[in-house]
Amino acid sequence: MTTTGSEQNKAPGSTGGEMGLNARNNIRQPLWLLAELTYACPLQCPYCSNPMDFANIKSELTTEEWINVFKQARAMGATQLGLSGGEPLARPDIIELIQEARNLGFYTNLITSGIGLDASKAQAFKDAGLDHIQVSFQASSEDLNNLIAGTDAFQHKIEMAKAVKAAGYPMVLCFVTHRQNIDQIEDILDLAINLDADYVELATTQYYGWAMHNRDQLLPMKEQLERAEAIAHRYQEEQKGNMKIYYVVPDYYEERPKACMNGWGNVFLTVTPDGTALPCHAARDLPGMELPNVRDLSIREIWEDSNDFNRFRGFDWMKEPCRSCDERFKDFGGCRCQAYMLTGDPAMADPVCSKSPDHHLILEAIERGREEAAKPAQEAKPLVFRNPKNSKEICGS
Amino acid sequence: MTERTFNADSVPVLALGYRFQWEPAQDCYVLLYPEGMVKLNPAAGEILKRVSEKKQTVGELIAELKAAFNGADLDDDVYQFLEEAHDNDWIRAE
Asked: Using the beta-carbon criterion (under 8 Å), do B19 and A107 form an inter-chain contact?
């Protein structure tokens, strides 16, 4: 999920208006807790959303500390819990965490590569109350999947997708698309149909962290996207009532930015393996963050009172053109992390917006990707894989 | 108008992966599903509560609602909501 760009509340539903507002200071309650349980992962995907310096982050929260975080977030009204990582199955206490979370009333989502899973574990998690397992694939063919994942994982993933379904969960498959696999979209969807998937998320690579480092190698070209979108829409029609297909367009090709996190400090709370609380999983890299930790402060103090969570809440922090733009209530000015990465100032408009004075940066990135794609393979920049060695080499230790 | 899925004898059940529960913090019933949540208005909550609690036909469900709400004439509203919920993939007919 952390790499996908999906929305927190996909269906608007039969809602009764503005519920969940805190009357005192107009702060909503968190609805989504993303628990990044560990940065350990057997895969090395070059678009990983973990921070590039993950190898320097030690000291994972204990079982008791995580359960305490779950209790506090649940008491504030969070309903969705993402158990993510790294690879969450690398935590030996995963079943205990699932059980506690489910007993608290969370809808529990396990976001996994499938490595470390087997049929008996899928069933044991079900018995512990797990609601949903999302299995990620890197591609539809064994060779490309294993190349991107940096390990031999494809056949096991196929087996695990089947085991998930057999244990009585909906089968939710996630493919993160980019220039190197998006032309396989028909094969990807055929694979999902053959596996009898219930949901397929054709997510787009989000250019933060490792993916930003590899952007010239990953950013798809316009003609690739047009083809992929037409195919995805055809399958959506054909599979109606059978398999739900979510197709996400990379924001670099949009004229307006995504409503990132549904607004800063609005519904989304990430807690990283070492207990740092973030308004989004990429926000650690912004300048001037105080990075409050759940070991020192309650979730309520962090959510309501911390400078980090209040920094880009509401609309007062905005600069032009966002400040006077009618669309600010819809997209919140886009993504703060993307604004910072591309312009050096996290309070600027997300350059994805065509009204942004920095929009040319997006167009130039697309052009650089195209130039890189045209190079013969031996001259192209190699992908930098997400592993501890590269993390330490790039960030120092 | 598309074809109707439900009649008095069909049994509505929650779709795979959907969970129904009361949310004190929201002060309403909600439907939870992979990575999402729907907040339900009171009428929708009363209907889905009965769908999730036990397997029964639409006819039985309507009778139960009538008993709970002073014999109100709610047949059309229930059918309309069930069709809507089905279109949203929240429920299916058994």
From this structure: yes
